[in-house]
Design brief:
Chain lengths: 148, 147
Protein backbone atom coordinates (compact mmCIF):
# COMPACT_ATOMS: atom_id res chain seq x y z
CA UNK A 1 0.00 0.00 0.00
CA UNK A 2 1.45 3.36 -0.95
CA UNK A 3 1.36 5.77 1.97
CA UNK A 4 -0.29 9.14 1.88
CA UNK A 5 1.81 11.46 -0.20
CA UNK A 6 1.48 14.30 2.25
CA UNK A 7 -0.32 14.75 5.53
CA UNK A 8 -3.62 16.60 5.55
CA UNK A 9 -3.32 20.36 5.54
CA UNK A 10 -5.67 22.56 7.54
CA UNK A 11 -7.38 23.42 4.24
CA UNK A 12 -7.83 19.72 3.42
CA UNK A 13 -9.39 19.05 6.82
CA UNK A 14 -11.76 22.00 6.57
CA UNK A 15 -12.77 21.04 3.02
CA UNK A 16 -13.52 17.47 4.12
CA UNK A 17 -15.48 18.58 7.19
CA UNK A 18 -17.50 21.14 5.22
CA UNK A 19 -18.35 18.59 2.52
CA UNK A 20 -19.21 15.93 5.12
CA UNK A 21 -21.79 18.26 6.66
CA UNK A 22 -23.68 17.91 3.36
CA UNK A 23 -23.40 14.13 3.52
CA UNK A 24 -25.21 14.06 6.88
CA UNK A 25 -28.33 11.92 6.84
CA UNK A 26 -27.33 10.06 3.66
CA UNK A 27 -24.59 7.90 5.16
CA UNK A 28 -26.48 4.61 4.88
CA UNK A 29 -27.39 5.19 1.25
CA UNK A 30 -23.84 6.20 0.39
CA UNK A 31 -22.29 3.26 2.22
CA UNK A 32 -24.68 0.77 0.63
CA UNK A 33 -24.02 2.12 -2.87
CA UNK A 34 -20.23 2.18 -2.34
CA UNK A 35 -20.06 -1.41 -1.09
CA UNK A 36 -22.48 -2.55 -3.84
CA UNK A 37 -20.24 -1.01 -6.47
CA UNK A 38 -17.06 -2.38 -4.93
CA UNK A 39 -18.41 -5.96 -5.07
CA UNK A 40 -19.84 -5.55 -8.58
CA UNK A 41 -17.06 -3.58 -10.26
CA UNK A 42 -14.11 -5.26 -8.47
CA UNK A 43 -15.25 -8.85 -7.99
CA UNK A 44 -11.99 -9.85 -6.29
CA UNK A 45 -13.33 -8.04 -3.21
CA UNK A 46 -16.13 -10.61 -2.95
CA UNK A 47 -13.56 -13.07 -1.65
CA UNK A 48 -13.81 -11.41 1.77
CA UNK A 49 -17.55 -11.92 2.02
CA UNK A 50 -18.05 -15.58 1.22
CA UNK A 51 -19.97 -15.88 4.48
CA UNK A 52 -22.76 -13.62 3.20
CA UNK A 53 -25.84 -15.20 1.65
CA UNK A 54 -26.42 -12.41 -0.83
CA UNK A 55 -23.74 -10.27 -2.45
CA UNK A 56 -25.98 -8.43 -4.88
CA UNK A 57 -26.15 -4.61 -4.91
CA UNK A 58 -28.46 -3.38 -2.19
CA UNK A 59 -28.87 -6.75 -0.48
CA UNK A 60 -29.43 -6.87 3.28
CA UNK A 61 -25.81 -7.74 4.24
CA UNK A 62 -24.47 -5.18 1.75
CA UNK A 63 -26.76 -2.49 3.17
CA UNK A 64 -25.78 -3.32 6.73
CA UNK A 65 -22.09 -3.37 5.97
CA UNK A 66 -22.30 -0.13 4.00
CA UNK A 67 -23.83 1.55 7.03
CA UNK A 68 -21.08 0.16 9.27
CA UNK A 69 -18.31 1.36 6.97
CA UNK A 70 -19.80 4.83 6.49
CA UNK A 71 -20.35 5.25 10.22
CA UNK A 72 -16.64 4.56 10.73
CA UNK A 73 -15.63 6.99 7.97
CA UNK A 74 -17.92 9.70 9.39
CA UNK A 75 -16.41 9.09 12.82
CA UNK A 76 -12.95 9.46 11.28
CA UNK A 77 -13.98 12.87 9.88
CA UNK A 78 -14.82 13.99 13.42
CA UNK A 79 -11.41 12.77 14.60
CA UNK A 80 -9.50 14.00 11.57
CA UNK A 81 -6.68 15.40 13.69
CA UNK A 82 -5.72 11.96 14.99
CA UNK A 83 -6.72 9.27 12.52
CA UNK A 84 -4.18 6.77 13.83
CA UNK A 85 -5.64 6.98 17.32
CA UNK A 86 -9.22 7.02 16.07
CA UNK A 87 -8.72 3.90 13.92
CA UNK A 88 -6.54 1.89 16.30
CA UNK A 89 -9.00 -0.85 17.16
CA UNK A 90 -10.33 -1.03 13.58
CA UNK A 91 -6.74 -1.40 12.41
CA UNK A 92 -6.23 -4.32 14.78
CA UNK A 93 -9.46 -5.89 13.52
CA UNK A 94 -8.43 -5.57 9.87
CA UNK A 95 -4.85 -6.66 10.52
CA UNK A 96 -5.30 -9.65 12.81
CA UNK A 97 -8.83 -10.91 12.25
CA UNK A 98 -10.06 -9.83 8.81
CA UNK A 99 -6.65 -9.71 7.15
CA UNK A 100 -7.92 -7.67 4.22
CA UNK A 101 -5.16 -6.93 1.73
CA UNK A 102 -4.64 -3.19 2.26
CA UNK A 103 -4.59 -2.65 -1.52
CA UNK A 104 -8.36 -3.07 -1.32
CA UNK A 105 -8.75 0.07 0.80
CA UNK A 106 -7.99 2.09 -2.32
CA UNK A 107 -10.67 0.16 -4.18
CA UNK A 108 -13.38 0.96 -1.66
CA UNK A 109 -12.18 4.58 -1.50
CA UNK A 110 -12.53 4.95 -5.27
CA UNK A 111 -16.05 3.55 -5.20
CA UNK A 112 -16.95 5.92 -2.38
CA UNK A 113 -15.74 8.84 -4.51
CA UNK A 114 -17.86 7.62 -7.44
CA UNK A 115 -20.95 7.53 -5.21
CA UNK A 116 -20.25 10.99 -3.83
CA UNK A 117 -19.88 12.21 -7.41
CA UNK A 118 -23.30 10.82 -8.41
CA UNK A 119 -25.03 12.19 -5.31
CA UNK A 120 -23.35 15.59 -5.08
CA UNK A 121 -22.44 16.51 -8.67
CA UNK A 122 -22.26 20.24 -7.91
CA UNK A 123 -20.49 20.03 -4.55
CA UNK A 124 -17.97 17.32 -5.43
CA UNK A 125 -15.68 19.76 -7.21
CA UNK A 126 -12.07 18.90 -8.13
CA UNK A 127 -10.91 20.71 -4.96
CA UNK A 128 -13.27 18.67 -2.78
CA UNK A 129 -12.31 15.52 -4.71
CA UNK A 130 -8.60 15.89 -3.99
CA UNK A 131 -9.19 16.68 -0.30
CA UNK A 132 -11.52 13.69 0.19
CA UNK A 133 -9.16 11.43 -1.78
CA UNK A 134 -6.28 12.49 0.49
CA UNK A 135 -8.46 11.98 3.56
CA UNK A 136 -9.48 8.46 2.50
CA UNK A 137 -5.84 7.64 1.79
CA UNK A 138 -4.97 8.83 5.30
CA UNK A 139 -7.77 6.66 6.70
CA UNK A 140 -6.44 3.68 4.74
CA UNK A 141 -2.96 4.33 6.10
CA UNK A 142 -4.26 4.49 9.67
CA UNK A 143 -6.15 1.23 9.04
CA UNK A 144 -2.90 -0.36 7.87
CA UNK A 145 -0.93 0.66 10.97
CA UNK A 146 -1.19 -2.65 12.79
CA UNK A 147 -0.54 -4.93 9.81
CA UNK A 148 3.22 -5.34 10.26
CA UNK B 1 -9.64 -11.65 -27.13
CA UNK B 2 -11.97 -9.68 -24.92
CA UNK B 3 -15.48 -11.04 -24.74
CA UNK B 4 -18.19 -8.42 -24.30
CA UNK B 5 -21.71 -9.29 -23.22
CA UNK B 6 -24.57 -7.56 -25.01
CA UNK B 7 -25.25 -5.63 -21.83
CA UNK B 8 -21.65 -4.38 -21.67
CA UNK B 9 -21.58 -3.32 -25.32
CA UNK B 10 -24.85 -1.48 -25.04
CA UNK B 11 -23.89 0.16 -21.74
CA UNK B 12 -20.60 1.46 -23.08
CA UNK B 13 -22.01 2.67 -26.40
CA UNK B 14 -24.89 4.27 -24.53
CA UNK B 15 -22.55 6.21 -22.25
CA UNK B 16 -20.55 7.56 -25.16
CA UNK B 17 -23.68 8.52 -27.06
CA UNK B 18 -24.95 10.52 -24.08
CA UNK B 19 -21.86 12.47 -23.02
CA UNK B 20 -20.55 15.71 -24.47
CA UNK B 21 -16.90 14.97 -25.33
CA UNK B 22 -15.75 18.55 -24.84
CA UNK B 23 -17.42 18.86 -21.42
CA UNK B 24 -16.53 15.42 -20.08
CA UNK B 25 -13.03 15.47 -21.58
CA UNK B 26 -12.22 18.83 -20.03
CA UNK B 27 -13.69 17.85 -16.68
CA UNK B 28 -11.94 14.48 -16.49
CA UNK B 29 -8.55 15.63 -17.70
CA UNK B 30 -8.49 18.75 -15.50
CA UNK B 31 -9.59 16.65 -12.53
CA UNK B 32 -6.67 14.28 -13.19
CA UNK B 33 -4.19 17.18 -13.20
CA UNK B 34 -5.71 18.57 -9.99
CA UNK B 35 -6.23 15.37 -7.99
CA UNK B 36 -2.99 13.71 -9.12
CA UNK B 37 -0.71 16.69 -9.66
CA UNK B 38 2.32 14.60 -10.61
CA UNK B 39 0.55 13.89 -13.91
CA UNK B 40 1.32 17.51 -14.80
CA UNK B 41 4.88 16.39 -15.55
CA UNK B 42 3.78 15.37 -19.04
CA UNK B 43 2.23 18.71 -19.90
CA UNK B 44 5.03 21.20 -19.41
CA UNK B 45 4.05 23.02 -22.60
CA UNK B 46 0.45 23.59 -21.55
CA UNK B 47 0.98 26.94 -19.84
CA UNK B 48 -0.47 27.80 -16.45
CA UNK B 49 -1.25 24.70 -14.36
CA UNK B 50 -0.40 26.42 -11.12
CA UNK B 51 -3.62 25.73 -9.23
CA UNK B 52 -7.07 24.22 -9.67
CA UNK B 53 -8.56 27.47 -11.00
CA UNK B 54 -5.80 27.83 -13.59
CA UNK B 55 -6.14 24.21 -14.70
CA UNK B 56 -9.93 24.43 -14.93
CA UNK B 57 -9.78 27.52 -17.15
CA UNK B 58 -6.77 26.42 -19.24
CA UNK B 59 -7.81 26.19 -22.93
CA UNK B 60 -5.09 23.65 -23.79
CA UNK B 61 -6.34 21.38 -21.04
CA UNK B 62 -9.85 21.69 -22.42
CA UNK B 63 -8.86 20.88 -25.99
CA UNK B 64 -6.66 17.97 -24.93
CA UNK B 65 -9.52 16.57 -22.87
CA UNK B 66 -11.61 16.47 -26.05
CA UNK B 67 -8.73 14.78 -27.93
CA UNK B 68 -8.68 12.03 -25.29
CA UNK B 69 -12.44 11.44 -25.59
CA UNK B 70 -12.22 11.25 -29.37
CA UNK B 71 -9.44 8.69 -29.02
CA UNK B 72 -11.60 6.64 -26.62
CA UNK B 73 -14.43 6.77 -29.14
CA UNK B 74 -12.24 4.84 -31.59
CA UNK B 75 -12.26 1.93 -29.15
CA UNK B 76 -16.02 2.19 -28.64
CA UNK B 77 -16.56 2.02 -32.42
CA UNK B 78 -14.53 -1.21 -32.72
CA UNK B 79 -14.77 -2.99 -29.41
CA UNK B 80 -13.51 -6.29 -30.77
CA UNK B 81 -10.20 -4.77 -31.81
CA UNK B 82 -9.16 -2.38 -29.08
CA UNK B 83 -5.62 -3.72 -28.87
CA UNK B 84 -5.03 -3.11 -32.59
CA UNK B 85 -6.77 0.27 -32.44
CA UNK B 86 -4.28 1.49 -29.83
CA UNK B 87 -1.07 -0.09 -31.13
CA UNK B 88 0.22 3.24 -32.46
CA UNK B 89 -0.95 5.27 -29.46
CA UNK B 90 0.71 2.75 -27.17
CA UNK B 91 4.03 3.12 -28.96
CA UNK B 92 3.61 6.91 -28.86
CA UNK B 93 2.96 6.94 -25.09
CA UNK B 94 5.86 4.64 -24.34
CA UNK B 95 8.56 5.71 -26.77
CA UNK B 96 7.90 9.38 -27.43
CA UNK B 97 5.87 10.69 -24.50
CA UNK B 98 7.39 8.29 -21.95
CA UNK B 99 4.33 8.26 -19.76
CA UNK B 100 4.42 5.98 -16.71
CA UNK B 101 1.58 3.57 -17.61
CA UNK B 102 0.38 3.52 -13.99
CA UNK B 103 -0.94 6.99 -14.76
CA UNK B 104 -3.45 5.68 -17.30
CA UNK B 105 -5.86 4.39 -14.68
CA UNK B 106 -5.58 7.65 -12.72
CA UNK B 107 -7.16 9.37 -15.71
CA UNK B 108 -9.56 6.43 -15.92
CA UNK B 109 -10.68 7.01 -12.32
CA UNK B 110 -11.31 10.69 -12.98
CA UNK B 111 -13.27 9.87 -16.13
CA UNK B 112 -15.41 7.39 -14.17
CA UNK B 113 -16.14 10.02 -11.55
CA UNK B 114 -17.13 12.62 -14.15
CA UNK B 115 -19.30 10.16 -16.09
CA UNK B 116 -20.92 9.15 -12.78
CA UNK B 117 -21.78 12.76 -11.98
CA UNK B 118 -23.29 13.20 -15.47
CA UNK B 119 -25.33 10.01 -15.59
CA UNK B 120 -26.26 9.93 -11.91
CA UNK B 121 -28.74 7.13 -11.17
CA UNK B 122 -28.30 5.71 -14.67
CA UNK B 123 -24.71 4.88 -13.74
CA UNK B 124 -25.79 1.76 -11.86
CA UNK B 125 -23.25 -0.67 -10.35
CA UNK B 126 -23.69 -2.89 -13.41
CA UNK B 127 -23.13 -0.05 -15.88
CA UNK B 128 -20.19 1.09 -13.75
CA UNK B 129 -18.71 -2.42 -13.95
CA UNK B 130 -19.03 -2.42 -17.75
CA UNK B 131 -17.35 0.97 -17.95
CA UNK B 132 -14.54 -0.15 -15.63
CA UNK B 133 -14.00 -3.24 -17.80
CA UNK B 134 -13.81 -1.02 -20.88
CA UNK B 135 -11.24 1.24 -19.19
CA UNK B 136 -9.21 -1.79 -18.10
CA UNK B 137 -9.10 -3.06 -21.69
CA UNK B 138 -8.10 0.39 -22.98
CA UNK B 139 -5.34 0.69 -20.36
CA UNK B 140 -4.11 -2.82 -21.06
CA UNK B 141 -3.93 -2.04 -24.78
CA UNK B 142 -2.04 1.18 -24.13
CA UNK B 143 0.44 -0.78 -22.03
CA UNK B 144 1.11 -3.36 -24.75
CA UNK B 145 3.98 -1.56 -26.51
CA UNK B 146 5.92 -0.79 -23.33
CA UNK B 147 9.05 -2.85 -22.86
Amino acid sequence: LTGTMTSLSAKDKNTVKAFWAKVAGKEEQIGCDAVSRMLTVYPQTKTYFSHWKDLRPGSAPVKKHGATVMAAVTDAVSKIDDLTGALLSLSELHAFTLRVDPANFKVLSHNLLVVLSTMFPEDFTPEVHVAVDKFLAAVALALSEKYR
Amino acid sequence: MVVWTDFERTAIQDIFSKIDYAVVGQAAFSRCLIVYPWTQRYFGGFGNLYNAAAITSNPRVASHGKVIMEALEKAVKDMNNIKATYAELSALHSEKLQVDPDNFMLLGHCLTIVVASQLSKAFTPEVHAAFQKFLAVVVSSLRKQYY
